[in-house]
Amino acid sequence: MDIHLGATEKDLIESRKKKLLELKNLGINPYPSKSGKTISAKIIIERQDEIMVSKEEITVAGRITALRGHGKLMFADITDETGKIQAIFKADILDENNFKIVNLLDLGDFIEAKGTLFTTNSGELTIETHLLKMLSKTLRPLPEKWHGLKDEETRLRKRYLELISNPELREIFIKKAKFWQATRQFLIEKGFLEVETPVLETTAGGADATPFSTHHDALDIDVYLRISMGELWQKRLMVGGFEKTFEIGRQFRNEGLSREHLQDYSQMEFYWAYANFEDSMELVSEMYRYIAKETFGTTQFKIGKFEIDLAAEWPKIDYTKTIFEKTGLSILEASEEEVKSKIREMGSEYEDNASRGRLIDTLWKILRKEIAGPAFLINHPVDVSPLAKRKEENPKLVERYQVILAGSEMGNGYSELNDPEDQEKRFLEQAKLRAAGDTEAQMHDREFVEALEYGMPPTTGFGFSERLFSFLVDKPARETQMFPLMRPTPTKSGKSEALISKSETKLND
What we know:
alpha+beta, CATH 2.40.50.140, 2 domains, nine-stranded mixed sheet, five-stranded mixed beta barrel, disordered C terminus
C-alpha cells in the first residue's frame, strides 16, 4: 500500500506502476474480465448468522477502502455498492503465490476475496480469505476522504471520485432514480401512455427559450435540439386520436446558469384529452404527493428558509391580483414603460429587447420569491402564455397554472390552445419578437397550425423538470446531476476552464 510519507502524486503513481509490473511478472492478470462474486456486503450482514452456522464459503468483491497490518497478517475493508465488509489475509492460510498479491495491494484497488465468515474479538464481521484475486489495479491514489475534493471544479469534473468517498452523494442519485420511477409509475397507473418524440427539430417549439442548433449532414439541413418535452408533438398525438400521453427525457436550452437552471436536463410532460387545467391541477397535486412519498417517504421538506408540506392544502394565487397588491400595477392595462419602471424600482433588471410578456414575467419572478407554497398560480395574462387557451370570461387571461414551491416555479400547465386561427395569430406575434432580436420568442410552426386545423380535442398539458427534485433535496441543480457539463480539462497554463457560473445570468423558466 502507499506508505511513502511526503511522496508526491507522481511518486505514488510510479510505485503503483512497479507493483503492476510485478503482478504481471507473477503471471497474474491485473485486469481480468470476470469476477466470481457471489454475495454483497449488505446480504452478508443480513444473513450473517445463517452464513456462519453453515460455514458457507462466500466470495465478495469491491474496492479496497482501508488497509491495515503488516508482515504475514493484513486486514482490508472491501466496499461495494451496498456497503463494506472486512477481509483478513493470513500467510498461513493463503498459499505463497496468492499471498504475494497482498503485498502489492493499494487503497483503491478492486479485489475479490473468497472465504468463510467469522466475527473478530472486537465483534466485526470478517471474511477469512482462502483465495485472493486482483480485479483491477489502480494507478492513481484516491483523494483523502476529508481533504481531497473541496474545490467545486474538481468535484464536478471528477464526480466519480466524490462518489467513492461520499455515500450521501450516491444516495442522492439513488433517490433521483426513484423520483423518475415514481413519476412514470403514477402516470401509467392513471392510464397515460409513455411516448417518444423527436429530440432534433426543424422548428424548436413548446417553450420560450433559446435553442441549441446543429447541422444534419445526411439531410443537409440545420436542426435544433428540443426545448420542450415534445409539447407540439404530443399535441399532434391528441389530433391523431391518443387521449393520454407522457414523455420523460432530456431537453436543452441555450441560456444562463444559476442555482436553479441548467442547459441540459430531464423533463416530464403529459397531455390529457377531454380535460382542462382544473382537472390537471387535481391530478398534479396528487402526483407530487405520490412522488414525494415514494422517493423520500415523506411529504414534508425544508427547502432553504421554507418549511414545506405537500400534503397541505394547495391554495390558488391570482397572478394579476397579486401583482396589483404588491406593486399597485394593474398589469393588464400597464404600459411597458410602467412595468420597466417598477422592475427598476424593485432593484432588478430586464433585457433591452424584452417583450411585454417577458417584462411582466420578470416582474412576477421578483414577487414570487417570498411564496412558500405549495400553491397554484392562476390567471396569467395571455402575453406570457402563447400556447394556452384564453378564459371565456376574460380573453386577456388564460387557463394556465404554475406550481409555486419555495419561491420558485416547480411545474407549468394549462388548457391547451386548440383554435388554429388564434394559434396562428400568436405565432405571428412571437415571430415579430424574434425578428426584433428576442431569441427566446417561440418559432412559427406552420405544420403544427395545420395539424390543429384537422381538429384537436379539448386538452390539458403539464410539465416539470428535475429542478423539482433538486429543490426537494435542497441542493443546487448542478449538484444533483451526475456529470454536469464542464469545459475541457484545464490547460497546463493552470487557468481554470470549468463552466462555473460566477454570476447568475438569465433566470428563464
